[in-house]
């Protein structure tokens, strides 16, 4: 069960750089991720095999849609914003999605660390094979970032609740020195547990009930 008014936590994800081959368009890049997401979670949540989220905000910068003959529904979109929005609707059906595409890439000039693969061009696009000569420093990269409200947050929040519940704050005399009362601490724990339930859906609801019974 999901209560949208109570969902207050999001999981962050990013692709640095965004994996796009040199000379490819945004539809070309996204077409290779129809059954997956083109970013990795930055939050300490367990990756889900099935893409699912309630709401999300996605920003892509440094890559635009090139004019080519339509080879897929993504290629038929008129703008990069439409390409990204169409992709999000197909991979995350039913989710509320906002998206933005910025033409300006992220600069990686000094003092930005040069830890990139030699397969990257100066503009941060992937080469299909290693260059014959040493490549120049990467000056900019396309980047995709996402904030998602999704079921993975249940595991994160409930795990935090269980870890905190194991603590005995009375063992640390300074724990309540700031004026926090034991009852306030217990109330905050229950609010954390309640918040975790806002991110449960489908079969996970049954698992969550089993967890509650075992408490």
From TrEMBL:
InterPro entries reported in the protein's UniProt record: DML1/Misato
GO annotations of cellular component type: mitochondrion
GO biological process: mitochondrion organization
Descriptive protein name: MSTO1 protein
